[in-house]
Amino acid sequence: MSLTGSSAEGGGPPGLDQMKQGVRNLRLGFFGTLGLFCIFFCAIQLLYYLYGGLLGLPGVYRADRAWPWLTSGAWLFALALPAFFCWRFLRRQDARNFELLARQWDSWRWFDYGVDMFGTELEYSADQELSFARAAGLDPQDPYARNNLGSVLLSQGRIAEAIGFYQEAIRNNPDYYKAYSNLGAAYARQGDSERAVGLYRKALKLNPRDPYSHLNLGIALARLGKNTRAAEHLRQFLVLAPEHPRAREISDFLSGLGLRSGLSS
């Protein structure tokens, strides 16, 4: 039986809440910059207080007062110098954040183009591969584009490349169950059912109700001759996805194993 396959991630561009969060992130550095300003201010005040008189600098603390008062020179240096450096720092940070936000938005647009090709004549085509590849290239931390790109490559028979992108998706999001399940499907295509079983189990640990992981795990266990455990997962697949186009095929396969009885309706 050869039903092992991968599942892709659907979705679209980020919604309004995501965009608002991205804009808010642009200003998060303000508080850090304010903290730097306070540190610089206090440091310059202390230097003036300790060493200003010895160096002959203008505007130092006057020693003839019971309480040390700042003169105009101390205020000028203590305020202007850190303010200038903090302003430069904040400008550079804002420029970097705007660039990252723009790249992320472009990544989501390309991702959306690729998702729209599912169910059309462009599904698993070179155009869909290009869309997901561009999305992945624009956002190095995006696991979903890498997962979908791996699924396109796997469908084209480029198993080694698909494995690489699934592994990248897992590194970017260790809790992404679909990437584990798809990586298992890729290893199963290479004939490594033992490794595939471990990955399917990891996917089900993260999401016990994923029908495709149950399906793929059941098939892998059947290939290893572990029919009883295979039947348990294949039955669970039919419970979770009774309308799946291959549900009848799975049901017939279970009958062939002699383990059809006990299937939930």
From TrEMBL:
The chain crosses the membrane at residues 28-51, 66-90. TPR repeats lie at residues 143-176, 177-210, 211-244. InterPro entries: TPR-like_helical_dom_sf, TPR_rpt, Ycf3/AcsC/BcsC/TPR_MFPF. Pfam families: TPR_16 (PF13432). Keywords: Membrane, Repeat, TPR repeat, Transmembrane, Transmembrane helix. This is Uncharacterized protein.
